[in-house]
Amino acid sequence: MTAPGDAVELATERFRLTLLPELGGRIAACQWRHPAGRWLDLIRPMSSPHDGDEEAGCFPLTPFSNRLRDGRFTFEGRDIRMPRNTPGPHVEHGHGWQRPWKVVASEPDRIVLGYEHAGDAWPFPYAAMQTIELMCDRLRIRLTAHNRGREPMPYGFGLHPFFPATPETTLEARVETVWHVDGEVMPVRLGPAAELWGDAARLPVGQVSLDTAFAGWDGVATVRWPELGAGLGMVADAPLRHLVVYTPPGAGHFCAEPVSNCTDAFNLSTSRNDTGMMVLAPGSAIATAITLSPFALP
After folding, report:
1. CATH assignment of 8-296, given 2.70.98.10, 2.60.40.1220, 3.40.120.10, 2.40.50.140?
2. Widest CA span of the chain, in angstroms?
């Protein structure tokens, strides 16, 4: 078991990865060797190995993605209240990103991280696993969750990467709808994706200010960094069919998060069936995978 802050390194000829298991199972840095020979950051690297709130790295989302209004929802007659975990009024990103994960297995190019939840304010016991594998031309992250309780469990999961943003960075994805949000970044209306994405296939991330979930995503996205002569393809398996896009102006980074559910899905699901909220039966499991494939631009 790693001590708090201890880093675990994975490396191949083309990839270098730094992990902080005790800090929410977070990828602290990920570099790829460009065919030209230089190393490029695919993920915005963390500046401090002890700052879990830093907008950098990449971490798993469990047992839901994004915000839960006031940290409260009702499921099958039970009122569930979770303590705030950020300065804002709502609970964000579940709890897996702030809990220690254990190294279950490790090789030079592959690592398995596990998280066991016995039940607390989130009263449902479950186990989550994150398997990270470096291949010759891609990085694959497999996420699994297993309901260890005796009752159904509401659930959502995904991945929260922070990507570098250059002035000419673009994000390309096929999405159908978008959740418009209020001043607290909570969803208020579902509309056509073009209302916020625009008509062009490639979104110029440095020219828009977004923090919302797009739905009807086909699981494929492409980031391009023209100044760096590089791009990154992302493929997410079902049920990750929402894409959360966060583009803080002038920040030098952005997020394109493959997730299963929209913001506040557990509350919205009481009146609609398109939120992406899943229900895991006792003893059942769910799995998905995200593949990141860097490439050189011509």
Report:
1. 2.70.98.10
2. 59
